[in-house]
Amino acid sequence: MQTCAIVTGHSRGLGAAILRELLGRGIATLGLARGASRTPVEAPAGLFEERTLDLSDPTALRAWLAGPQLANWVLGRQRVLLVNNAGTLEPMGPLPTQDLAAVADAVNLNVGAPLMLSAALCAVDGADQEQRIVHVSSGAARSPYPGWSIYCATKAALDQHARAAALDATPGLRICSLAPGVVDTSMQAALRKVDPARFPMRERFEKLQREGQLSSPEDCARRLVDYLLSEGFGRDPVADLRSLASAA
């Protein structure tokens, strides 16, 4: 089966690990991120492409989607994978402290971009393929945290989007909003340095790191891609990768 993928936020962290996992399985992958990959990507010619695109800018994303690049990438494929991974934790802190521009950027990046890309992929003219969309969600979508009102709300929006989109029963489409667990990335390292006044739960994440309870990006990416390619993908529109692993 000829498969291709699109990964947002592929330049670092979990997104970079997902990119490497897909390429390692011979899946042609298009990366979309604000910057190019931070480490060299070794892949045969034609297997990897990347586009520099600020996904928090809806005007820029709309302009890119209006062009031919998405259709050119997916046409002729039998299966297309969309991994909506890009996201931000900012702004953190109580409402009076939140920068309004940062709020708008977070909503655009965490919610607007995944929803726009998902709709655009399913609307590509002439495409006749199986489409699998995974939103990288979070446990914060289902459990509120002080200081994370924006992050919790935007991740919860992805969960609800997947639930509603699944009810549409679009032919050929499978979709899941998937919480990957706590992954040892630079985002987590930055979180452990945040002023507790902005994020009172910081100690919990420091403890997870001290006790070795963080997943490596590589292990998380392997399990995520395993699930994305499995027969069971999309059976539940909202899932937790840790629960899937324990049930396997």
Which series of helices and strands comes N to C?
Answer: EHEEHHEHEHEHHHEH
Question: Number of helical runs?
Answer: 9
Share of helix, binned: 40-55%
Largest sheet, strands/sense/barrel: 7 strands, parallel
Average predicted confidence as pLDDT = 91
What is the SS-derived class? Answer: alpha/beta
Strand tally: 7
Q: What is the spatial order of strands in the main beta sheet? A: 3-2-1-4-5-6-7
> What separation lies between the terminal Cα atoms?
25 Å
Question: What sort of overall outline do the alpha carbons produce when their principal axes are compared?
Answer: globular
As residue ranges, the low-confidence spans are: none
Strand content: 15-25%
| Rg calc | 17 Å
List keywords for this structure.
alpha/beta, seven-stranded parallel beta sheet, 42% helix
Plain-language structure description:
This protein has 248 residues and is of the alpha/beta class. Helix content is 42%, strand content 16%. The protein is built from nine helices and seven strands; from the N terminus they run βαββααβαβαβαααβα. Strands 3-2-1-4-5-6-7 form a seven-stranded parallel sheet, with helices on both faces. Strand 4, helix 4 and strand 5 form a beta-alpha-beta unit. Helix 1 crosses helix 8. It is globular and about 50 Å long. The model has no long low-confidence stretch (mean pLDDT 91).
